[in-house]
Amino acid sequence: MSPRPSSRPLGSTPALPWVWAVAGHASHDNGILPSLKQRSTGTLGTTGLHAQSPHQELFLPLALSSVPRSPVSTFPASRPLNDIDIYSLTVDSKVSSRFSHTVVTSRVVNRADTVQEATFQMELPRKAFITNFSMVMDGVTYPGNIKEKAAAQEQYSAAVAQGKSAGLVKATGRKTEQFQVSVSVAPSAKVTFELVYEELLRRHLGVYELLLKVQPQQPVKHLQMDIHIFEPQGISLLETESTFVTNELVDALTISQNATKAHILFKPTLSQKQKPPKLQDTVLDGSLIVRYDVNRTHSGGSIQNGYFVHYFAPEGLSTMPKNVVFVIDKSGSMSGRKIQQTREALIKILDDLSSKDQFNLIVFSGRAAQWKPALVPASVENVNEARSFASDIQAFGGTNINDAMQMAVQLLDSSNREELLPGGSVSLIILLTDGDPTEGEINPARIQENVREAIGGRYSVFCLGFGFHVSYAFLEKLALDNGGLARRIYEDSDSALQLQDFYQEVANPLLTAVAFEYPSNAVDEVTRENFPLFFKGSEMVVAGKLRDQSPDVLSAKVSGQTNITFQTESSVAQQEEEFQSPKYIFHNFMERLWAYLTIQQLLEQSVSASDAERQALETRALNLSLRYSFVTPLTSMVVTKPEGQEQSQVAEKPAEDGGWGLESQPPRHHRPPFLPAPSSPTQLVDFRHPLHKAGLYLSFIFTE
User: Which of 264, 465, 557, 703 could staple 227 via S-S, CB 3.0–4.6 A?
Assistant: First the structure.
């Protein structure tokens, strides 16, 4: 994916034409808001961007309840909804060298003459780490304290034993979870909520994406979103898209940019935020998306305060031929819409195969069967025949994953022995299943071991878990053990598009066996340096520390398959000087980026580690989490509240398999904007996994 050709130099400030998109946004069944896309001309082009790009999803606090402290079971229709008034709502997001630091601040006042309960509520990315949450009341700050999970367990268990729990944070989207905390507010009193989190933006199909969702559910006197982006490599593509910037709000959104920096500001006046006449049933509600990419340079990295990061996404490489075996679950649980969407997606994916590729199909239920006895070229004739085969797949029977995977490995082995695999090609096994094994070998650990031994590091496995009845932990380990990755496919109307989107990620392999090599006397504590595959549109990231006696120039040799080597160099002094502007830099961001990436990779490594190795990985990840104040799967944040109110709110991260307990049907809509106080304590459902990199789960335990 490449940006459109430049017709003006970066740094100029042309008029910004507005392009109305066709898409709309549903707002709590309150109506449809038009979608507005803004593009800058020249170097700020746009291409066919995909909706499933990994992105940072930044959501403003959704709602503040306005209900009496006395429990009520329903919300009185006649009661005014603005007793708790949000008079200021701001988000300050700084992105420096792909690493984002976001501060969301909400200030509210109780305008009623009785005590009211104010609820701070927002959604944040699953891959983000919360670093701080605090409330300020009557001049006193009530902070969140990050502790080892075991240290918070006593408070957690005591609250659960008393049946006093509320404020569960649940999955509200495919990449987000909802943070919620409530506090009682005296008449005329004010409260300031502040939430801080950090995340490394990942490149997906050629772009980075930052998403802000605005749902205050009432006019806000001071509403502002302020985004600063600094990319030393230079910004090659910048695009904004919004579902809430109507004609009344066009002037509230401003964008400025030079070669390396961008500033996006949304700051409407109160009159601009009022409901337009034709939308009386709605308030400001929607998304602001910022997509961007950077220039690719030989240095491709940044250095700050003794820490470095290298981003590597070489251009100009030819796509390698693929040998792909699609392993498709057609067991009875796939019947209905799932098998129909699988057929649709598979037909589209087959159309996208390159003429240089080879492929085969395996379908399985209680038994596995292959479409052809061997891999076949992706010729027009073979693809058409495979399409016909795919369109006839019917769902029935049990689930025999082990035999299907063994058959896939044997297909590749046979072609390899007969020297039928093209030189310089990549062999992939793509497994799609919606359930756990029920026939043949059903022990997940034994299946993982069987597949790992059969493959022996020669092929990569990518696992797609359809819905929530499959063990994602099983699929993730199966993939990570074999140089691939796992992805959940959500049961929805766009499941076929999700499958196609995933295939686009792996459709164009450019490099294999990528290794970063640094001078041993120059760096220390380097993150992952070896990558089995590199795909077009993605990016490899390596971070580390500089040694005390580091050279003036940091060099790195990056090698791929035979005869492919890249050399990168960065001037330490020049790189240090670039990161001096406080407007774009936060704290020691490079050190925090290194810590974030190290923790993420330690958690990932632990998935496929032995028990002894896992303990060592956990210990290191825990120490880093505590040192840098990250809420990770190994830590909890205990949120304090004023004396006399419910206490011991504990924030935790869940596993991908965790959730509300009804995660197989994730909610389509957000909760109502104004919530009554619960008439009785709600049961705390605690789904936890000792280690998992994805998902923020916040369970708030209220004790009197």
Answer: 264
